[in-house]
Amino acid sequence: MEELVSPEALLPTAEQIAHDIAMNSPHAVSLSQQAVWSSVELPYTQAVEYSYGLVKTNWQHPDFIEGPRAFAEKRPPQWTT
Q1: Per-residue pLDDT of the chain (81 residues; tens, 9 = 90+)
Q2: Among 12, 14, 40, 29, which Cα is nearest to 63's?
Q3: 36: CB partners within 8 A, 6+ apart
């Protein structure tokens, strides 16, 4: 995500982005962090393959079902820890 904001809006915007990330599945956020940090060290093709492996791992996690279900039921998701 990229946003261009005034210096006065920098901290509130950063806090909002951090809050938005924290509202997501902790498992999915962790996998995203792994994908980002691993891609720094890997060539492009390997980084894509590694990231796709992480995506497939997430398909087996209960939060993968909970997120869409909570959205459809118009309720906050109950993420696993």
Answers
A1: 688 999 999 999 999 999 999 999 999 999 999 999 988 889 999 999 999 999 999 999 999 999 999 999 999 999 997
A2: 29
A3: none
Give yes or no for a contact between 79 and 25, defined as CB atoms under 8 angstroms apart.
yes
Tokens of 68: 């869409």
Count of CB atoms within 10 A of residue 4's CB?
6
Residue 29 structure tokens: 């956020």
Q: Where are the beta strands (DSSP E) in 1-81?
A: none
Structure tokens at 66: 């909970």
Helix (H, G, I), strand (E, B) or coil at 2: coil
